[in-house]
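Quick bug: NADP-dependent aldehyde dehydrogenase output formatted oddly.
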Amino acid sequence: MSALDAAAAAAPVLAQMPPWERAQFLVAAADALLAAADELVPLAAEETGLTEPRLRGEIKRTAVQLKLFAEVAAAGDYMAVRLDAADPDFVLGPRPDLRRYLVPLGPVLNFAASNFPFAFSVAGGDTASALAAGCPVVVKAHPGHPRLSDRTAQVLNTVLPAGALGVIHGQDEGVAALKDERITAAAFTGSLTAGRALAAIAAARPRPIPFYGELGSLNPVVVTPGALAERSAEIVKGFAASVSGSAGQLCTKPGLLFVPGEFDAAAAFDGVTPHRLLHPGIADGYTHRRDEVLGTPGVTVTVEGSVTAGGVTPTLVETDLATLVKHRDTLLQEAFGPLSVVVRYTPGEPLGAALTELVEGSLTAGVHVAAGEDSHWLRELVTALQALAGRVLFNGWPTGVAVTPAMQHGGPFPATTNPTTTSVGTASIERFLRPVVYQDAPPSLLPEPLRDDNPWNVPQLRSPAGQSPTWGSLAG
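Here's what came back:
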């Protein structure tokens, strides 16, 4: 049986499964993943070139994600059950009995990422959130770690229900699956070019489906004059670590840093050893972008870095705001690797307005401020950062995405294809659900979450009869 056949057969089984049973197999999947870490981590290191400490941290994060979504499934809040009692005296005319909840979409296609072989791959957040929603998952494995993908799926399938998780390989196979009518939604993490092409395919289907793509992000960070005067050494150190970590192969790497005047960061990059890039396609793309940036008039190289067969070291360039505006087509594109552009600005100039004009949607945006700092200029800047990003950071660096209910990992295009959703945090489950209302249904035909006796014990928001005449009173 193909992965798509198996997913289609599993969909009604998972959809009708009580939420605590989904929770149990998600916890079992997390435990199985951790138990296999000594086998999986070396395989991941061999295929990706990422370090063992980084990968061990990532596999732990992946297990935490699975357990977090076990909690979400067990609680049942994600179903958003709303019960409106029949009301013959409703102010607009008799109201029927209405019972609304969210149901699983069906089989989900997950295009795995290259840079997180655990956390955004076969066992990653997209898979965890879809399974918690009650959707089977077909993962299109990334060509950068094919053996790890297969082995991870084998480990998980020892504890998951039959057909809940499948893996396919190859670009053509991924496109064919995206066009298959059994697939009801797709998630993607990768390049802008590939993401746009896949989104177009999803939209052009006879029955279009939701496509949740994470595509590219510059993640601008601003340092105020007060912050630079207060703790310049700390800021320089943090910036260097954020740019060079995992060889800059992170969607949250700070690609633009705005500083007031001189900013000497070169010494902080000393001693960074060469790091292999994930696969030849990323190496070629990074080399091309680096050459474009280094060849831009008005750009000064402060850390030249290197690109060799043995790996890459960070490249840092500096320019001013006028040059950034003049050469925006070259400088305002993501470089997926350890390269960042430092932009000098004049204190007091309307930087918020400039960012709004220049920078497209990003996953994150940040600002470093001094203790107690506040001003009209700073408030305008923060408003501008909120408009262009899904997560606004203060006195921190964007490379680090907490796996927690309140996290938002998404932003305006081109960061993501849908700025109203997230791929990290418990709200990501909403991508794989759709609302259904039962109107005047006989009690015996109601699904468990909508019944008055509530056998699944899920939260129910009730609107009793007789309330409508008082609506609006709280506004006073």
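Actually, after a second look the formatting is fine. The chain has a mean pLDDT of 95. Closing.
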